[in-house]
Amino acid sequence: MNKNMNGFPANFLWGGATAANQVEGAYNIGGKGLTTADMVPYVPKSERGLNFAIDVDSNYIEKVLKGEIQDTYPKRYGVDFYHRYKEDIALLAELGLKAFRLSINWARIFPNGDDAEPNAEGLQFYDNVFDELKKYDIEPIVTLSHYETPLSLTLKYNGWYSREVIGFFTKYAETVFNRYSDKVKYWITFNEINMIGHSPYTGGGVLIDKVPNKTKAQISYQAAHHQFVASALATKIAHEINPEMKIGCMLARTQTYPVTNNPDDVQLALHQNDLNLFYTDVHATGEYPVYMNRYFAENNIVIEKEVGDDEILKQYPVDYISLSYYMSKSVAVDPEKHEVVAGNLVSNAVKNQYLDTSDWGWQIDPKGLRITLRDMHNRYKKPLFIVENGLGAYDKVEEDGSIHDTYRIDYLQKHIQQMKEAIKDGVDLIGYTSWGPIDLISMSTSEMSKRYGFIYVDQDDEGNGTLNRSRKDSFYWYQGVIATNGSEL
């Protein structure tokens, strides 16, 4: 248990987090293959509502590949980190980051996912990035799969719905573990693994329309099982290559409250928290929780396992648990009696009258972060790592080039204060990598105007702009937070 009663420990990893498909660009350079993210189009705000979610199907992909559809695909160009990584890492060093979370784009290493040999140019690119980080003593936190499944695996095998993909993933994992064993200590297998239940395409490269006579729930939980096994095997491989490597899982954590003290609402909130934490339950304990037996039975879900799967999960649990936290949500058994929250990536939620709401409909709840950290600490007794937290907002560039993002500072200050309280409560918290230290393409809407960064990137939703980088007010604020190890917020 963490004994720090005064605040953040001296070795706390202050950082920032990104994903390859949202920053790198260079989608067709250096031998990289196409990924599922490269097929997600930008849809103008006028054509989508707050609950908008991209639904890419096989017919759409086929038409894009044939040239019959020519949309704008922002994740193909990102913010050009591929060519500007030295400039960007220098800015991150000036910011004072002690850690930088990034992902390796699987298709940059194995362009088709199932290639016989890795792509040497892709491997060298990440060598260069890690060497640049080392120059500034910035610890890399590396995600193996962050919403960027090689498109070929989707077209040939239907992504993670196929058990065959486990072998391709472990080969990829072993390749990069061996290559970077002396450069990377902290790894994460799957980003927000529970996203596969919300969007099987995003989370696992799965095309629902390619699986007839199966429910979305059946498909997504089966694909999740394959990811669980792959994650456990990757953990095994990593520890064999270098016992000092730390392998983590990651959950998109949404603390769920009952909107009233009606026991039915309380029970519903408990159920939804269980469904959310199911993924970390498997990763951390090495077994499926008993409460899911009833859920699977009542929803006619059957998980197909091979002999030995349960033993693999049990033998190779993760070393630590990482999570993203942006908001909480409230639920009711009779939602029609309450004001509904309409927000991107928000589902089946009602308004919490005590919370403010972001421009994208996410209810801002700093104290919910302390609650969830306490809950996960008590549930798992493993180190925790907050690897995403931030505020997506519209930024205004003043005539003199300054950006006064006080709203972002306020959001982060309140969340970091609650992290400090959780550590005083005894939570073992490794670090905090804010999402994202530099403006990037939004995962959920593929837009640029939903900005998170301390560093502004001159680019609009259509990809126009100089790509010049500049510092926001929050840059200097976070710089001070890190310099004082969180004592001055």
Tag the structure with descriptive keywords.
alpha/beta, TIM Barrel, 13% strand, 16 helices, single chain, 489 residues, two-stranded parallel ribbon, 8-stranded parallel barrel
Can you characterise this structure?
The protein is built from 16 helices and 14 strands. The chain has 489 residues and is α/β, with parallel strands linked by helices. The chain has a single domain (13-483), classed as TIM Barrel (Alpha-Beta Barrel). The strands form four sheets. Strands 1-2-3-4-5-7-11-12 form an eight-stranded parallel beta barrel, surrounded by five helices. Strands 6-8 form a two-stranded parallel sheet. A two-stranded antiparallel sheet has the order 9-10. Helix 10 (216-241) crosses helix 13. The mean pLDDT is 95. Belongs to the glycosyl hydrolase 1 family.
